[in-house]
């Protein structure tokens, strides 16, 4: 596409493809010229770069011309056959020529001309789509990597407007990491994005590829989408579709909505942290929300040796108990159940008396008053730290 005129451009590469495709379909030798009658595409590669003199008149008049063997012999670079103008709007941008008996090629002339113009329009449309996709990918990367000290937010907002987006609308960043379920299976960027856009299809949504296997959706957050869990539910639906249709496994994270370039960047950072921390805290889940992972994120941002010292100081010998995973789960459930016996027992799927027994055991082993919120919160944070160490620290893995 010519960026100045908006018209399709007949490049040598495209001309060669058109000449090859039409020649294969019709069985004739096909020749394509530029407006100066220079051959830029031909089944006979030796003619590329030569002048096809008959095309000069065809370009000038915009009308087809038949060349008999006698007429062709008196012109430079011409063989008997037919030459037709390739037009876009009112402009002749080249010619398409068929070599053969005039009576025979005349029957195919109009069809060949139209086919050349269709192929040219399709190539221009494909290029336009590719440029748009590249612009979308660049935009989501701009949001992900935004640094106010380096990039002007107004410049990023201007790119949003070019993509038809309202830069001031609230959006939540959603991160998708996906891989083929079966080793060696193909994973198509186009396939993934088509499915993503089927689920997130609001005209103010934008989805692009950040890196191989990693995609970003900037989802408009208004109306029903502001309801708690609505975007997370949509993420679950998308992951199911990717697995059912394309054999892809994935996981997603949801950032909290933000407005403008800065707000969307913060949402992206939240989602990136959730995608990194979530699997350690909720290993059985596929969708993680930043709002549910604030505390693990805060703990995870502490240097590793600091986390280890904190967990050691609070938990002491508890971690050496054979049933430590059960005791840890109990402490986490006790805090997240609001230190309420019935709610916590229901959350842990155990009887109230079982919970009381475990809390008493933890108190005796640790010397902590676990039914007092201040000490229970301290142990809760230490337990979350232990979970993070267990699932993310290389030293613990070894």
Automatic annotation (TrEMBL):
Q: Where is the PucR C-terminal helix-turn-helix domain?
A: 327-384
Coiled-coil spans are none
Q: Where is the CdaR GGDEF-like domain?
A: 152-277
| UniProt superkingdom | Bacteria
Pfam families, per this entry? Diacid_rec, GGDEF_2, HTH_30
The chain positions of domain Putative sugar diacid recognition read 10-142
Which InterPro entries does the record associate with it? CdaR-like_regulators, CdaR_GGDEF, Diacid_rec, PucR_C-HTH_dom, PucR_C-HTH_sf
What the record says about family reads:
Belongs to the CdaR family.
Question: What protein name does the entry list?
Answer: Putative inner membrane protein
Which organism is the protein's source? Streptomyces himastatinicus ATCC 53653
């Amino acid at each position: 596409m010519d960026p100045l005129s908006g018209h399709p451009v007949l490049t040598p590469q495209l001309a060669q493809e058109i000449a090859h495709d039409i020649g294969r379909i019709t069985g004739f030798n096909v020749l394509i010229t530029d407006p100066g009658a220079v051959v830029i595409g031909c089944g006979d590669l030796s003619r590329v770069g030569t002048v096809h003199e008959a095309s000069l008149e065809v370009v000038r008049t915009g009308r087809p011309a038949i060349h008999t063997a006698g007429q062709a012999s008196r012109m430079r670079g011409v063989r008997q056959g037919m030459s037709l103008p390739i037009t876009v709007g009112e402009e002749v941008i080249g010619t398409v020529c068929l070599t053969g008996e005039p009576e025979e090629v005349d029957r195919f002339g109009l069809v060949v001309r139209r086919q050349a113009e269709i192929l040219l329009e399709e190539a221009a449309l494909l290029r336009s789509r590719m440029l748009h996709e590249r612009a979308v990918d660049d935009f989501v990367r701009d949001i992900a990597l935004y640094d106010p000290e380096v990039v002007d937010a107004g410049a990023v907002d201007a790119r949003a407007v070019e993509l038809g987006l309202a830069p001031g609308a609230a959006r939540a960043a959603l991160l998708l990491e996906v891989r083929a379920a079966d080793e060696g299976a193909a994973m198509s960027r186009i396939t993934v994005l088509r499915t993503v856009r089927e689920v997130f299809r609001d005209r103010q949504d934008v989805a692009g590829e950040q890196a191989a296997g990693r995609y970003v959706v900037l989802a408009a957050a208004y109306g029903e989408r502001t309801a708690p869990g609505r975007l997370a539910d949509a993420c679950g639906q998308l992951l199911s579709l990717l697995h059912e249709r394309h054999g892809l496994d994935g996981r997603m994270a949801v950032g909290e909505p933000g407005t403008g370039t800065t707000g969307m960047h913060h949402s992206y950072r939240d989602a990136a942290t959730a995608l990194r921390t979530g699997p350690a805290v909720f290993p059985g889940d596929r969708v993680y929300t930043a709002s549910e992972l604030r505390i693990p994120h805060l703990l995870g941002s502490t240097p590793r040796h600091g986390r280890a010292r904190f967990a050691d100081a609070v938990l002491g010998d508890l971690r050496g108990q054979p049933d430590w995973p059960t005791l840890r789960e109990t402490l986490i459930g006790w805090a997240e159940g609001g230190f309420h016996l019935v709610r916590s027992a229901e959350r842990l799927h155990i009887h109230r008396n079982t919970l009381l027994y475990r809390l008493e055991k933890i108190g005796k082993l640790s010397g902590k008053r676990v039914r007092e919120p201040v000490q229970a919160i301290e142990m809760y944070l230490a337990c979350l730290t232990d979970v993070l160490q267990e699932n993310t620290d290389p030293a613990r893995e070894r």
